[in-house]
Amino acid sequence: MSSAIRSLTPTCMRRHRNAKIIATLGPASxxxxxxxxxxxxxxxxxxxxxxxxxxxEHRERLELLRRLERQTRRPTAALLDLQGPKLRIGRFExxxxxxxxxxxxxxxxxxxxxxxxRVRLPHPEVFAALRxxxxxxxxxxxxxxxxxxxxxxxxxxxxxxxxxxxxNKGVNVPDVVLPLSPFTGKDEQDLKTGLELGVDWVAPxxxxxxxDVTELRRRIDGRAxxxxxxxKPAALECLTEIVALSDAVMVARGDxxxxxxxxxxxxxxxxxxxxxxxxxxxxxxxxxxxxxxxxAPVPTRAEASDVASAVYxxxxxxxxxxETAVGRYPAEAVSIMDRIIRHVERDAHYRQVVDANLPTPRxxxxxAICAATRRIAETIPVAATVTYTSSGFSALRAARERPKAPIxxxxxxxxxxxxxxxxxxxxxxxxxxxxxxQQMVDDACxxxxxxxxxxxxxxxxxxxxxxxxxxxTTNMIRVxxxxxxxxxxxxxxxxx
Length: 496
What we know:
By secondary structure, the protein is α/β, with parallel strands linked by helices. It has helices at 2-6, 32-41, 55-72, 124-129, 185-197, 210-220, 233-236, 239-245, 253-259, 265-279, 301-312, 322-325, 330-346, 348-356, 365-379, 393-400, 414-419, 437-450; strands at 20-25, 45-49, 77-81, 96-99, 104-108, 118-120, 135-138, 143-150, 154-161, 163-166, 171-172, 201-203, 225-230, 248-252, 283-286, 317-320, 384-388, 407-411, 426-430, 459-465, 474-481, 494-495.
């Protein structure tokens, strides 16, 4: 792939699909060549998973990503994924035990090595939240315990599902809201480092309540956007509030799949997607999408169907984790995901599903303008929708309508252009704000032609807000025809 990469020009970098791809960087994708391979294969956003790796490694990967961005002149986002609190048991005297179904097992704060009757759980906050009947899941749900009695420093449980249990395995408590901050000391330092490095998105783990999102926004103070990872059942009880407070949402099916019965996960995923679509928040589906490609050069048919199903639901992006971070075929995984998305989006049934699930516009000027833009593109042939945006608001509202024509978003802010790279259908570029309406039309036509979104004679729909440069003022729509630049003095014919 490398020889082909060198021959590419910036104008070759347009994605011919709407749903985006997030690729996780790791040991298998740390070199400049490997990151460039992922980008050329179709990666739109790059995830830095601070649960693994050293700060110096993440710093180097981000520097390589920014170098690639300058070379291609295509704004590309970096996503910082925070680890969050990890609940784990202590160690056993012999390294592992076998818990038998129907037997009792105690969790406590005692430092002594455990056995088949007890083990240390160094999290007093968990004991404070327990009550009889609460289930505890150990080792990704392989061991299931039911609380019989608990106090400030212990929990006596009944083994519901037994099996082998070894040192330091994880603990999940799906039925209660734990009195735990989602931000550990490690997260504090990782967030500080990530913001200093200039990440564009921050994805917090262990979000349980709306106030968790509010607290993170206070800490970030506008320096990055927030992509909340929904992985705790408690968060689903206040889904609408959490989505409203977020800039984007990730359906993190790893822990969510442990803490929920497996038969609930698909319907919960769809419910989250619907809520985000209605609110106009970008939504990402993640975890185990093409996991077999960590070792195999092709995915299973079930995995391909999983990716396709998410795309049919209208998600903004799908994510690769171990496939690109530690897998043997990172670029191939991105390429196959790209092919699946493009195939789905060419299916006539896809457009029927998207149109059937279109959210009702809210009673705002911005929604009215963007809904009208969609209707225009359905009535007359339109090559692209061009949005002028400072904060990204116009592009987000346009993307909420899922128009047939691609969205070319022009913004004076590089940070905004980068953040928009996760949004469905949006191709964002940094461009100076126009001062006059005619300049806006001329620039929109020129960029649409240069970037390969339109040909001479094609029509584009332009959405903007007046006065220029003010966030959240989407209030104007224009239709323009691309002129022939060879014609001296030619100006786009406009209507509307």
